[in-house]
Design goal:
It contains 16 helices and three strands. With 579 residues, the chain is mostly helical. Helix 13 packs across helix 15. The radius of gyration is 42 Å and the shape is elongated.
Length: 579
């Protein structure tokens, strides 16, 4: 239209006699504007923006002219390609809360700034939306609109301040939502799952009998349907869980289970020790950042007997292992390579820090095994002493029946004291077995699990070396036949095998690197856990020994005072201080 007007003006200037023609074109131009746009009183800011958007899609050059005049202070007007609001992004410019996402390409904030820019400015923990000065003013947009000659853009400029306020409110609402979510999250180091094993109950009779345990779970993990729940499981269910975790997570130290027992499975002391070990097993899994989100753990905790039996029938797929081919030839290569590595470790895979930790683990396992023997002797002798005091008490009591007077009372008093001391010593033996022997036994099993992880590292090294050897052999075979036209088919087959060998080598290298990276964190976690467990064990042992010895000493002190009072009237005997 502007071109038409300019042509009319130029024609009028060159032809003064055609003033009628100029008047005609001006009337046509203003008449076109009137039928093109309804009266201003019937338009809202959103409808005006809607008309502008439609004209802008058809006349992109106009928008580009306005952008050029706005300079560096503005971004760009939205186009049909970068709109996130359908065919007309201006139809609903107001936000009513925190949007699902903020994007510089999708969100419209007065045509210039976005909520993504607002979040980008929240550095240093300052979560505040940019000030209004960061946005182009309404006057700037109005100036651009006047240059463009579009009254609709001028209307849009008037609502730019309101739109900026809406976007600012939406962004601040999103920030508040994030703060509230963070406030409800568990603190660093706070356990996200707590599991207890209680209520051991014998089920069935005869050879098919077993002990069931109640598993109580409290969790804040979102994948669980309930936050507090319980299920009943038996020892074989725990074995299933451990085997699944070993297959699915070969680069992780899987906590050990208490060892099976052929006899004595229904003795109270054995059941108590097993219950504690099973609880420790589950809580170690729940404390591991990878194992705690395992689907197998969730199935074990949430499933009842019927559901778990169905899950046991489902085959498990472990992580993708390196592709291997070669049949018996590869197997023999790996056997010889493993024997060679045992005699002399390859220099490429020598890690002094790892070797030092490995030696420390072996020495630790030896020392823990020796200490465990001593604790077993202590517990055994404590129980023997308890039995000896019990028998001595019975002897004193029986002998008192044939005596009279002070002698009878004194023997009866000693018999009763020996009986009470026997009870304390038996309890102390059970507590020491739980605090020392069971913990050391668990440590030996944990060290065996660490040894399994070290074996996985050695196997991955052998696999990588074998893959490299096969690759080199195939490459050498190809070099011998590639120049012989009569062996073109053989050369093509070797090229295919070389490609497969390259893939196998790459997979083996990636598997080895993942295992090495995982081992560092796993060993650190094991050492931290062992240190915490040992501190708890030593403090508990010292405290329980102090308490039991104090109670036993108190019983003997009471016995002495009673005997002294009993014999005080006897000539030649005087009460003496124990100290």
């Amino acid at each position: 239209l502007s071109i038409c007007v300019l042509e009319s003006v130029c024609s009028s200037l060159m032809a003064p006699c055609s003033i009628v023609t100029l008047t005609y074109h001006c009337c046509y131009f203003f008449f076109f504007l009137m039928i093109r746009r309804p009266p201003r009183s019937t338009l809202s800011s959103s409808s005006a923006a809607s008309d502008v958007y439609k004209r802008q899609v058809s006349t992109q050059s106009t928008g580009e002219s306005a952008q050029a005049m706005m300079g560096d202070g503005a971004n760009s007007f939205p186009t049909a390609s970068d709109s996130a609001y359908g065919d007309n992004p201006f139809a609903a410019p107001a936000f009513t809360g925190a949007p699902d996402s903020f994007s510089a390409q999708d969100s419209f904030s007065a045509g210039f700034a976005t909520a993504a820019d607002a979040f980008g400015s929240m550095d240093g923990g300052s979560m505040s939306f940019p000030s209004a000065a960061a946005f182009p003013s309404a006057d700037t947009v109005a100036t651009a609109a006047n240059v463009m000659g579009h009254q609709g853009i001028a209307d849009l400029a008037k609502s730019a301040g309101n739109l900026h306020q809406n976007v600012s409110t939406a962004a601040n609402n999103a920030v508040s939502a994030v703060k509230n979510a963070m406030a409800g999250a568990p603190a660093e180091g706070e356990p996200r799952m707590q599991i207890s094993v209680t209520d051991p109950v014998k089920q069935g009779d005869g050879f098919s009998s077993y002990i069931s345990y109640k598993i109580n779970t409290k969790t804040t993990l979102p994948q669980y349907t309930w936050k507090e729940f319980s299920q009943i499981h038996r020892y074989s269910d725990f074995v299933w869980l451990q085997e699944r975790l070993k297959i699915r997570y070969p680069n992780v130290i899987i906590p050990p289970l208490p060892e099976k027992a052929v006899t004595g499975n229904f003795e109270p002391n054995f059941i108590s020790l097993r219950r504690t070990a099973l609880e420790r097993f589950l809580n170690r899994i729940a404390a591991h950042p990878i194992l705690q989100i395992s689907e197998d753990l969730q199935t074990f905790l949430e499933a009842n007997e019927e559901t778990l039996n169905q899950a046991k029938k489902t085959p498990i797929e472990g992580p993708k292992k390196p592709q291997q081919s070669g049949g018996m030839g590869r197997w023999f290569k790996e056997v010889f390579q493993g024997a060679s590595n045992a005699l002399s470790a390859p220099q490429e895979f020598v890690d002094p820090a790892y070797e030092e930790q490995k030696e420390k683990i072996e020495e630790l396992k030896h020392q823990v095994s020796m200490l465990k023997r001593y604790t077993e002797k202590l517990v055994m002798h404590r129980r023997l002493l308890s039995m000896a005091h019990a028998e001595l008490g019975v002897g004193f009591s029986n002998y008192s029946n044939i005596e009279q007077g002070h002698i009878q009372n004194g023997l009866a008093n000693l018999g009763e004291t020996c009986d009470r001391v026997s009870v304390f010593e038996g309890e102390q033996a059970s507590v020491e077995e739980l605090q020392l022997d069971a913990m050391l036994t668990d440590t030996v099993l944990m060290l065996s699990a660490v040894g399994d992880l070290c074996q996985n590292r050695a196997k991955s090294i052998v696999s990588l070396q074998t893959s490299r050897s096969i690759h080199a052999d195939r490459q050498a075979d190809y070099e011998r036949v590639k120049g012989d036209q009569r062996k073109a088919a053989k050369a093509a087959e070797l090229m295919r095998e070389i490609h497969e060998a390259e893939l196998q080598e790459a997979d083996s290298k990636r598997h080895y690197d993942d295992l090495v990276d995982s081992m560092a964190s796993e060993l650190n976690r094991f050492n931290e856990s062992r240190e915490h467990d040992y501190k708890t064990m030593m403090l508990s042992f010292a405290e329980s020994s102090r308490e039991y010895h104090a109670q036993i000493a108190q019983k003997w002190d009471e016995c002495y005072r009673q005997l002294a009072d009993e014999f005080a009237s006897t000539s030649g005997l005087e009460a003496r201080s124990v100290i």
